[in-house]
Design goal:
seven-stranded antiparallel β-sheet; Helix Hairpins; single chain; alpha+beta; binds 2-(butylsulfanyl)adenosine; OB fold (Dihydrolipoamide Acetyltransferase, E2P)
Length: about 675
């Protein structure tokens, strides 16, 4: 709490003080409820009551901005103002761990420690969480900084994002908390959230995250902490650092950390013999499959901090700890057949159909085969015994063939020549590994896929699922997304399992979509390579569909981040009479094909003809906001300094290379205040 007194230094009034007390009390209550819910998994109040308290606190905080506290429970929702991360030097370096893979290597570690210490010692075994490491700095019990591992010496300050992680306490509980501690731990994306996220990305045809680890580290580095907050990250703390820790035992420190409210895994054992260590390894190799988060091994740590200090570290690893890595889970099963799936862009994915086999707790029947090159590299034959691995990915993959088990050789798997759905010969472009079905206009899965894309939440947000789309398509009621706008009550009400309510709901949702803004309609069209962000960029550069349809490759590529590939695809779309016809049909149904009046009204030409580079970190607005302001006011935003640059909008920590180049080229450097003045703010 920064400022208890108002600006004129007078004492706060009585009601002011009461409100302050209330704020303090609400914050305490909400911290406690967060802890009960996210760390103990034992909530003591309903979600509804929790939300009520949260709303009360939010209202009070809005009323009293002077009582701002970055560690208030309301800060968990994130904010869009921080951006580009600054680099922070770790007070204590963040070391990595030496990996071992066999019981023999674990025995070697044990004997090395024994020789070195020449006294009794205990080993703490704990799970190795497979996420991204984080250092949480608590000063006087309050989270002051969260830093990624980086290169071990310096990392990124991701505090704003980490504040949104629900099981990380913003304020520690209890007494006798040293004035400075660092809690080292791992940030993870639970399996179920990872799977949901990838499903969403698949629907949007965005690249999938390979595993929860990549998803967690990608999320932590996002610019908008509101998106981070929505991703439901979790943390596990596995080490405490600080000069004033009361215990000499790592195990006891972890118990202490747990008492302070940090999330420490219960899967932890202090062992005094190698046998006990092996027992732990064996138990968790199986049991970890039932956990909600990914683990890839066990970490063994000497318990006594004094002994840890005596053993010391190399430049990379501590000598008092090692990681024992679990083997990637594999199963051997028979390849029964290969089938092919066609996506909305016509890309054809080969899928292996397998004799069902149990792997990491789920029955696997299918595995991805990626593309023709991957199939050839495996020298795959129907009937082969193949190794399947999950390795963090949602769709299992085939990693090898047991050629010894091949006694009757089946047909060699050759990539399909024709589309499995419409029979059109497939094409594979030079330099690409992917096969396409070129019959984009009449190939059913491509048409259905495009309609599915059109209706998604981030596009037209029409509440209709893939089954209904399939049904309406099969009944000849829709042949493209524009036909949705021709659907009538009578068409729907008599469909199997439909009734008046569902028919009316769908029609209402379709009607409502007519007010979806132009940039989202552009995204909904499903032009290849035009995702959500690109659609926004195109819409702000070309205010209506006619301007976009008439834009040349040069005009398109002059827009920031629009390269040849996208420009080419946009041109091809508007040169195809069938797509032009489709757009015209949508237009006639009343969809938005120009920027809204409000967006247009906010546009000016104040920066017309100016190319501006943004560099560094800012206080008043985020980089993205400055980017939007440049475009909104007719300027061009470019990523690198060149002779065409007119201004560099510079914040703190501007890159030295950019500075040098700017000075050499004589480019004017302006700060954010000057920039805002140029726009008349
Ligand atoms: S202790 C000096 N304990 O594994 C000791 N690390 O390969 C430092 N990790 O960077 C690490 N679970 O991000 C430790 N229970 C655990 C862990 C753990 C996961 C990660 C950590 C570290 C990496 C080393």
């Amino acid at each position: 709490m920064k400022n208890l007194f108002s600006e004129d230094n007078s004492l706060p009034s009585k009601s002011h003080l009461e409100d302050l007390e209330l704020i303090d009390n609400l914050r305490k209550q909400l911290h406690e409820h967060n802890y009960n819910y996210y760390v103990l998994s034992q909530p003591t109040i309903s979600d509804f009551e929790f939300d009520k308290l949260m709303r009360q606190l939010t209202d009070l905080e809005e009323q009293y901005p002077e009582f701002y506290d970055p560690n208030s429970p309301t800060m968990r929702v994130g904010s869009d103002i921080n951006k580009s991360f600054s680099q922070v030097t770790h007070r204590y370096p963040m070391l990595s761990l030496q990996n071992t893979y066999t019981e023999g290597e674990v025995t070697d570690f044990y004997n090395r420690v024994k020789r070195s210490l020449n006294e009794d010692f205990e080993i703490v075994c704990e799970l190795k969480f497979d996420g991204t490491s984080i250092s949480l700095v608590y000063e006087n019990g309050r989270l002051s900084q969260a830093i990624t591992r980086g290169d071990g010496k310096q990392g990124d300050d991701v505090t704003a994002n980490v504040r949104t992680v629900r099981n990380i306490p913003l304020v520690l509980k209890g007494d006798n908390i040293p004035d400075y501690i660092e809690a080292r731990g791992e940030i993870l994306l639970p399996w179920n959230v990872f799977e949901e996220l990838n499903k969403e990305r698949e629907a949007q045809e965005e690249p999938l995250f390979a595993n929860p680890r990549n998803a967690a580290s990608g999320t932590l580095k996002m610019q908008d902490s509101r998106v981070v907050a929505s991703r439901r990250l979790e943390s596990y703390v596995y080490y405490l650092m600080g000069e004033k820790l009361s215990s000499n035992s790592h195990f006891e420190n972890m118990e202490l950390a747990r008492k302070w409210g940090l999330n420490v895994s219960k899967a932890m054992k202090r062992c005094s013999s190698l046998e006990e260590v092996f027992e732990f390894l064996k138990y968790w190799d199986v049991e970890r499959k039932n956990l909600s988060v990914a683990t890839d091994g066990v970490v063994l740590k000497i318990d006594s901090l004094l002994q840890q200090r005596n053993l010391g570290s190399t430049s990379k690893f501590p000598r008092w700890a090692i990681a024992y890595k679990f083997n990637a889970e594999q199963a051997l099963t028979r390849l029964e057949s290969v089938s092919y799936q066609v996506g909305r862009t016509g890309a054809v994915t080969p899928v292996a159909n397998l004799e069902p086999v149990l792997l990491s707790g789920t029955t696997v029947k299918r595995a991805s085969l990626y593309n023709e090159d991957a199939i050839n590299a495996l020298d795959l034959h129907i009937g082969d015994m193949v190794y399947v691995e999950k390795g963090g990915e949602i769709i299992p993959k085939i990693t090898g063939v047991d050629k010894e088990a091949r006694f009757l050789i089946g047909d060699r798997v050759r990539f399909a020549k024709r589309c499995p759905d419409c029979g059109t010969p497939l094409v594979r472009n030079e330099d690409e590994a992917v096969h396409y079905c070129p019959n984009s206009e009449d190939c059913p899965p491509q048409i259905k896929g495009r309609i599915e894309h059109f209706v998604t939440r981030k596009a037209m947000n029409i509440t209709i699922g893939p089954e209904t789309i399939g049904l309406l398509y099969d009944k000849n009621l829709i042949k493209d997304a524009a036909d949705l706008y021709k659907l009538k009550f009578e068409d729907l009400v008599n469909l199997e399992r439909w009734g008046e309510t569902s028919a009316n709901n769908l029609l209402a949702s379709i009607e409502k979509s007519k007010s979806i803004p132009y940039e989202r309609v552009l995204f909904a069209l499903g032009i290849r390579f035009v995702g959500e962000t690109v659609a926004h960029k195109l819409a702000s550069a070309f205010h209506d569909i006619d301007m976009l349809a008439a834009a040349t490759i040069e005009q398109l590529t002059s827009v920031e981040e629009i390269g040849d590939r996208i420009a080419q695809s946009v041109r091809e779309y508007f040169e195809n009479p069938k797509y032009v016809d489709f757009v015209n049909k949508l237009h006639s149904h009343g969809l938005q094909f120009e920027l809204s009046k409000e967006t247009m009204a906010a546009r000016t030409e104040k920066l017309a003809g100016l190319t501006i580079v943004i560099s560094g970190t800012f206080e008043l607005h985020s980089r993205d906001e400055y980017k939007a302001m440049i475009l909104q006011n007719g300027g061009k935003n470019s990523g690198s300094v060149s002779k065409n640059t007119d201004y560099i909008l510079a914040g703190d920590n501007m890159g030295p290379a950019k500075l040098e180049k700017a000075e050499k080229l004589g480019v004017k450097i302006i700060d954010e205040k000057t920039f805002l003045e140029m726009l008349g703010f």
